[in-house]
User: Fold this.
Amino acid sequence: MNLITINVDNEENREDVLDEGHHLDWDKALNFHANINEDGKGFDNVFNVTSAPLVLYLVDGMISDAVVSYSLYPYRLIQTERINDINFVWNSSRDLNSLAWSHYKNEDDENELAEAIEWVTRSIDLDQTYSNTDTYAALLFKTGEYTKSLKVAKEAIEIAKENDDDYSTTTDLINSVIEKL
Assistant:
């Protein structure tokens, strides 16, 4: 299935774009117009949206769920197992870090945590930030690698200082690591 959207830059051009009807020629595609007001061509009244993306989840060709949201992040599609291929977010430092942090907060299984460490190290390779370095330190702590966690946590604090970020949670992590050593 192809999910195709048409973005209309100017609301005044909306009717002209839709009246051209190019979207009617698409095969194997569902055509939804979520920002069409009350003219009967869209889903505004049903989904109560203005221009937020409409995402449909299909199982065996049937709609299993629909979400209208500005805050649907790619990592959440992996997290909710709507997409099972990590390559979907493999080049997004932010999404990989968010996914790894979610695993830190919600998983205790060693294999799951090892996978989260792989994701966060890839995130750091793409773009090292305070957030992903802190996530890495937290995952190392949770997996019992206390000495390495301490080193990475200190590195996270240095990055935070350079960017005037709050690093109080990392300080708490360092104190927890020291208690374990």
Q: What stands out?
A: The chain has a mean pLDDT of 80.
